[in-house]
Amino acid sequence: MIELVGEESVLEGGITTHYLRYTWKKKLILLGLVVMTAVLALYAISAGSAELSPMQVLLTLLGQTEGNSQIIIWSIRLPRVLAAMVAGIGLAVAGAVMQTILRNPLASPSTLGIAQGAAFGAALAIIGWGAGSTPSTGGGALLINSPYIVTISAFVAAMLTTMIILFLAQYKGVSPESMVLAGVALGSLFSAATMLLQYFTNDVNVAAVVFWTFGDIGRASWGELGIMSFVVLGSLLFFLFNRWNYNALDNGAETAKGLGVNVEKTRQWGMFFASLITATVVSFLGIIAFIGLVAPHLVKRLIGGDNRFLIPASGVMGALLLLAADTLSRRIIAPVVLPVGAVTSFLGAPLFLYLLVRGSKLR
Amino acid sequence: MILAVNGIEFRYSSRTILENVGFTVQRGEFLSILGNNGAGKSTLLKTLNKILLPKKGSVLLEGQEVSKLSRLAIALKMAYVSQRYESNRQTVFDAVLLGRKPYIKWEATASDLALVHGILAKTGLEKFALRYLDELSGGELQKVVIARALAQEPEVLLLDEPTSNLDLRNQMEVLKTIQTAAKEKAIAVIAVMHGLNLALRFSDKFVLLQDTKVFVAGGPEVMTAENITQAYGVPVSVERVQNQIVVIPS
Question: Which residue, of A119, A198, A215, A268, is most buried by count of CB atoms within 10 Å of its CB?
Answer without folding.
Answer: A215
